[in-house]
Specification:
Layout lengths: L5 H8 L8 H13 L3 E6 L7 H20 L4 E5 L10 H13 L1 H4 L3 E3 L7 H12 L5 E6 L5 H10 L3 E5 L14 H15 L6 E5 L3 H14 L6 E6 L5 H9 L4 E7 L4 H9 L4 H10 L10
Parallel strand pairs: 1-2, 1-8, 2-3, 3-4, 4-5, 5-6, 6-7, 7-8
Helix pairs in contact: 1-11, 1-12, 3-4, 7-8, 8-9
Bound molecules: dihydroflavine-adenine dinucleotide.
Length: 297
């Protein structure tokens, strides 16, 4: 991927991003809402390089919350702790997260702390626990590739937590993470079961894996979980519209993750790497004689 010119990556990658500015993202959310879907808005960016940059991110998220409310949109927000500067200054990131959490009540909204690589699992869960003690308007994410996740799911489920359950996107060592796709799926279902042991938890099933969605549907039917205790989630641009349409028709809630902003490169390259057709797209873009010249941005 680093060998592919950034302009080419951009041509293909923008399918995963709602645009570079807030207005484009709000328009995407409005369209999704019209189609009966919910959204979670994510300002692209991770690893803030300075406290000032992290403060600016907070200001941008406050604007997002305000626009969601004034536009009467159905979307919450997803936030990365590294974007709030947790690797620069832990206390500063906690303070910034606190500013966002304080804005949730007046905007009647909800914030989910995305989960990053395993060096941040413990601090993310601890911080989440601390804030969850004060407000139910926050949730976080568990990754089923981590061996610890079933146990975390049981513990956080007992708090009545709102958890997004995904497989996990970062490369993690065998000692702490399952590597085999079937083991990751089995851990996903065990963790979902553990989350549902509590009657108060809520689960966002974030996966595009059709077999796994089928297993989730079997699980919720077996456990007789009411439909207001879970939802399905997908990333903008991943072609699962048909599956989501079917889920909506069956009465389930679905939510799209809507990332936007100028820092699209790291996010999009992660998405491209997990797309089995990525190589074909890129080669086609690079060698098609009818290809337009990519813009230099
Ligand atoms: P899998 O990777 O097996 O994909 C299943 C099928 O979906 C593939 O065969 C392919 O057909 C299709 N597909 C998947 N990705 C595609 C793509 N990019 N383009 C085209 N087709 C694609 N991770 C994390 O570590 N922390 C987090 O906070 C989050 N947050 C998050 C939110 C939401 C809403 C989603 C859906 C996912 C995340 N993830 C995440 C990412 C997650 O951990 C995982 O890496 C991806 O969802 C891919 O895993 P799947 O479960 O979709 O299965």
């Amino acid at each position: 991927m680093p060998l592919v010119p950034k302009a080419i990556v951009k041509l293909v990658a923008m399918r995963y991003v709602a645009g570079e500015d807030l207005e484009s993202a709000l328009a995407t959310v409005a369209d999704l809402n019209t189609g009966g879907c919910l959204a979670t808005m994510d300002i692209l960016g991770e690893h803030a390089l300075s406290g000032e940059a992290a403060d600016q991110t907070v200001g941008e998220y406050l604007e997002v919350l305000e626009k969601i409310r004034s536009g009467d949109l159905n979307s919450n927000i997803s936030v990365k702790l590294t974007h709030l500067g947790i690797l620069l200054d832990y206390d500063g990131a906690v303070r910034r997260l606190g500013t966002l959490v304080d804005a949730l009540e007046p905007n009647d909204n909800f914030l989910r702390i995305d989960m990053e690589d395993s060096s941040l699992t413990e601090s993310t869960i601890n911080l989440f626990r601390e804030i969850r003690g004060k407000t139910p308007r926050v949730g976080t994410v568990l990754q089923s590739y981590l061996r610890r996740t079933e146990s975390d799911a049981r513990a956080l489920g007992a708090l009545g937590a709102n958890i997004r359950l995904c497989k996990g996107i970062y490369r993690e060592p065998e000692e702490i993470a399952f590597q085999d796709p079937d083991e990751i799926r089995e851990s996903y279902i065990r963790s979902a079961r553990a989350l549902f042991e509590s009657p108060d938890s809520f689960v966002g099933f974030a996966t595009h894996d059709r077999a796994l969605v089928k297993s989730v549907l079997e699980l919720v039917q077996e456990l007789k979980i009411p439909t207001d205790r879970f939802e399905f989630q997908a990333l903008l641009g991943v072609p699962v519209e048909d599956l989501f349409k079917e889920l909506i028709e069956q009465g389930y809630s679905v939510r799209w993750y809507v990332p936007f902003g100028v820092d699209w490169y790291a996010y999009s390259t992660r998405r491209l790497k997990e797309n089995p057709k990525m190589a074909t797209y890129i080669v086609r873009q690079m060698f098609s004689p009818r290809r337009k010249r990519p813009s230099p941005s």
